[in-house]
Design goal:
heterodimer, A: alpha/beta, D-Maltodextrin-Binding Protein, domain 2, 10 strands, B: about 425 residues, mainly alpha, 2 strands, cell membrane (chain B), MetI-like_sf (chain B), transmembrane helix (chain B), MetI-like (chain B)
Chain lengths: ~375, ~425
Amino acid sequence: MKLKTTILAGTALALLGSSAFAADMTIVSWGGAYSASQNNAYHKPYMAAHPDVTIINDESSSEAVAKLRAMNEAGNVTWDLVDVEAADAIRLCDEGLAEEIDADTALAPAPDGTKASEDFGDMIVSECFIPQIVFSTTFGYRTDKVPEGVEPPSGACDVFDLAKYPGKRALNKRPIANMEWALLCDGVAYEDVYDTLETDEGVARAFAKLDTIKDDTIWWSASAEPVQLLADGEVFMASAYNGRLFSLIEEQKQPVGMAWNWQMFDLDGWIVPTGLSDERKAAVMDYLFFATDTQRLADQAKYISYGPARASSAPLVGKHETLGIDMAPHMPTDPNNAKNTFVNNYSWWADYRDDLDAKFQAWLAK
Amino acid sequence: MSDTATEPVLTTRDGRPLKASLAKALRREKLRALVLIAPLLIFVLLTFVAPIVDMLFRSVENSIVADTLPQTVVALKDWDPASDQAPDEAVFAALASDLKVAVKNKTHTRLGSRLNYEKTGISSLFRKTGRSIKKMNEPPYKEQFLKADKKWGDVSTWQTLKQYSPRYTDGYFLSSIDAKRTADGIQMKPENEQIYLLLFGRTLMLSIAITLACLLLGYPIAFLLAQLPLRTSNLLMILVLLPFWTSLLVRTSAWKVLLQQQGVINDFLVWIGLIADANRLVMINNQTGTIIAMTHILLPFMILPLYSVMKTISPTYVRAAKSLGATDFRAFWKVYFPQSVPGIGAGAVLVFILSIGYYITPELVGGTSGIFISNRIAYHISSSLNWGLAAALGTMLLAAVMILFVVYDKIVGIDNVKLG
């Protein structure tokens, strides 16, 4: 009898304990160096301040959109916070899979008291999206394969110049960015790019430009591929995410240079899935308040060369944690790198993505 | 019971007809068998058949329009899509009241992304209108909608809305064969958007090529395995199984290292002077890459059924043929080969069906000319969220496999397939 009571009491206590203290938080991100930077800048200090919270890293951001929809349909959302690109955040928001968040009430103001919505400014591209970093899709090239007596490539338009820079290229296997570059380098003015792409002639013109290098292009789909192709010397030039190129050049010391001209800015940030219990939502909002404040965003730049999304974080960006080099010149937002940039027009792509993707894939398959 | 006595019907002891009694006994027997297999049956139904049926059902399901805009759909019944006029005030009033509910439930943007698959621009139309709907309280609504976005005055917007208002649609299936329904009936899409028929054809051709390559490479190996003494053949068998146990991704990446232009094979060929440094072979990121990598990955699925069938072929038949004067080749071709056909059938069906649904290897080594239809299905599932189209493409693939299976049964006969 006594034993039974003890067991019962123990079980009850264990159940009570698990509901009161087991605050597991599943945070979904991209893995690799990027997850490591989040772990160092956000997760570790947060868990140190909240010993009762355990953060579980899930590296499935690349299939987050489909998985969130499946979870939502099954009525069992197991993720608390998801790191996605801005375009996906818009899609998830449209589908009702992401929670709308008011930046001013949910997020910390800047140290000088500026409201969060002003500190993030234009980066808040959707009601559901909490920006975190600015990254860019830009170009890397093999410094040892630049022909003699030719200045090294400076940006996107050099990709189309096969006479000057012979060799294979690697581009992303999707229309976004490639279509814009094709038009920009074909002489369309920056302001007119999206208007031109809305017309059939504009699309045909972009494809005609891409046709000039189609036979010499390897199309990548995973973000590790272009960097590997550069490291192997398979291609002369490749479009890639600037953080991946940074680690190839500075950490792995490969003979690769950056060509920043017409880099395409893109945003990455958090969304909170809909369908969380109040308790879980409160926990995740607390984490979010901490992880997106000015200092935390600046801290992340110590580990990876992506620019913090808050204006107030930029002056706080310092040196790389292990390499000890100054991080500011490696940021896509650095004035030397950002002479000519273009910003992904999210709302335009939300409309045209399905249509242009069909045309792009049909063009690729031919 | 007096009737039974006069008619010649066999009865059991209790007077019931023997036939009925037997049927009853058999029924009980069947029921018992059913109860025994019930757990497995329910498991298969719940975890395999039901999800597939549910997924296939999405290829025709389209209740989102009627659920989100119920009054508009009813009001649109009287509007003629062939007329060059946008609908009148009554339809806009219905739309206003539907949208107010939809915005409150946040379902209007979901509808927008659904209809954007059919007509570019509807996604932002709904998002934009959703923001200004709160201000629309007084009729006339038509002007206010046109002020919010002029696309509401566009006939094609309403044609799309009306065309996709029924709860079931053939639109996804038409899309999956590069066609669409227009005001003048079903038409092919413009040539620069046609892709799926091409991909279906390519998937089929490459799968056949991979199956043939597996057969050509696998038959001699299986033959060798079956002939050698057990000790040697076991060692060889491990060599066959070792890659089989290795992760798919590792093997695919290994092929990348081997086949790329700065890779091992090209380096070797340049080193021995067979090819010039400037003319390195392109063996990856095209169909060649897909065929080589997938043949390697699927080879064990050909060798294993072939081996287990060949193992059962008695060597005495070939010996008998030779003793009757047949040459080695004739003895093999007339006596041995026909007996190994069931193994070829099993291996070929296995390899073909596995390869037709492959997507990870083609994605990694196929470039643009070596990708399969499954790569597009994966894209629509995970990236564009157009699950309806993905389901339609999946259904087509399933149907194609089943038709080929029936054809195979007619030509070779499914009884002729043996796994061991």
